[in-house]
Design goal:
alpha/beta, Rossmann fold, four-stranded antiparallel beta sheet, 15 helices, globular
């Protein structure tokens, strides 16, 4: 592919991604993979170059652009070589029009920036929200007592956390036993520590998804006790059992829940859990480094629906905790309506519950919990609180 053809390919992909973001369609990675699956002539260098253009545009533009061409023109405004590909020759994009307008760079839509400021996030922290994320892993000590990876750095406060060099493929690290490493952001590892999981406990991971935090809990418990991992998403939950087997974890039971019938389907665990961990569905404002297109998908209406869902899962989780037990509430969001505000509302509505102070190796106190941010902690953004039932 010529440079101009690569630019045109990026424009076509961005057009699809913009529509998918508007209509809650497929993720950008899925769209890119599908695009090249139908274009076998594109070599690995072409695919890499086009992908880099696509994601550079997504990271550059906080507001969802009106078109892929407008998005690429925003990049071209700062890149003369890219601008030169708009020459109308061959398979490249059409020539620039005299009055053609480009999209404008930004961190996020203005309404979201105002919500972030209202949640106590300083403007100086905004640029870090869309930087490229590092690759972090958790060492599974039951599979590997020691791990030596060239260029890897230990993560402060995490005995089993490593930050790998950029571009490394975890699946191709030579000499690593199968299941020895689990890809998991340092922030995700840190907030899971708030569960204070111990061998022999009964723990519910209420919104387990594919099970990253479930496996971290099992490691803290030495694979002794019982973990019930639940979710309403069959596809995501189905990934947990193979991961657990690969990691040598035997204490996890998975249970698919029907929306609206969660309490009924969890009745056998009612009032008996030592800890319920709730990694609640959220806006993902703390994970834009990994999912920059999420800024284009979020709307005030969708945020309101997420807040209602979080209140719902908190109520379900509270009924599962034994007297003296705890509920750990986690969101990968930096918005107070999903984090500190959500916990404040729960405590106001549930007598007999109180927020417990938690000491973590990163983060700052925020409301009744702790908040981690990319700029301050070099992790994804999280809010976590530990609530104890009297």
């Amino acid at each position: 592919m010529t440079p101009a053809a690569r630019t045109q390919a990026a424009i076509e992909l961005l057009d699809e991604i913009i529509v998918a973001a508007r209509d809650s369609g497929a993720a950008a990675d899925t769209i890119v993979a599908r695009y090249f699956a139908n274009r076998r002539y594109a070599g690995s260098k072409d695919r890499r170059a086009v992908r880099e253009l696509v994601y550079a545009a997504i990271r550059t533009l906080g507001e969802r652009p009106r078109s892929g061409r407008a998005a690429m023109l925003a990049l071209a405004a700062e890149n003369p070589a890219l601008a030169a590909t708009f020459d109308g020759v061959g398979h490249g994009p059409a020539k620039l029009g005299d009055s053609e307008s480009k999209a404008w760079p930004g961190v996020a839509p203005n309404w979201l920036l105002e919500r972030l400021r209202g949640s106590g996030l300083d403007d100086a922290e905004f640029p870090a929200l869309i930087e490229r994320a590092p690759l972090d892993v958790r060492i599974n000590r039951s599979k590997a007592a020691t791990v030596a990876i060239e260029g890897a750095e230990p993560i402060a406060g995490l005995a089993d956390g490593l930050r790998l060099p950029g571009g490394m493929d975890v699946e191709r690290i030579e000499g690593m036993p199968d299941g020895a490493l689990e890809v998991q952001d340092a922030g995700s590892q840190i907030v899971t520590l708030a569960a204070k999981a111990k061998p022999g406990q009964r723990i519910v991971d209420l919104c387990a998804g594919a099970g990253g935090k479930t496996l971290a809990l099992a490691a803290s418990m030495g694979d002794e006790g019982a973990i019930l991992a639940t979710d309403t998403d069959r596809n995501r939950l189905s990934r947990l059992a193979p991961r657990a087997e690969r990691a040598g974890v035997t204490t996890v039971e998975t249970r698919l829940l029907n929306p609206g019938r969660e309490a009924e389907m969890l009745a056998d665990w009612g009032g008996s859990a030592d800890c319920v961990l709730i990694d609640a569905p959220c806006s993902g404002t703390g994970t834009w480094r990994r999912n920059p297109e999420a800024r284009w998908r979020l709307s005030p209406e969708r945020l309101d629906r997420l807040v209602a869902t979080q209140q719902h899962v908190l109520a379900i989780g509270a009924d599962l905790v034994r007297p003296g037990g705890a509920m750990v509430y986690i969101v990968c969001s930096l918005l107070d309506e999903e984090g500190a505000g959500q916990v404040a509302t729960f405590l106001a509505d549930h007598a007999g519950w109180h927020a417990e102070r938690i000491d973590l190796p990163a983060g700052r106190s925020h409301g009744a919990g702790v908040r981690l941010t990319p700029a301050h902690d070099a992790t994804d953004g999280f809010f976590v609180a530990r609530l104890t039932r009297g």
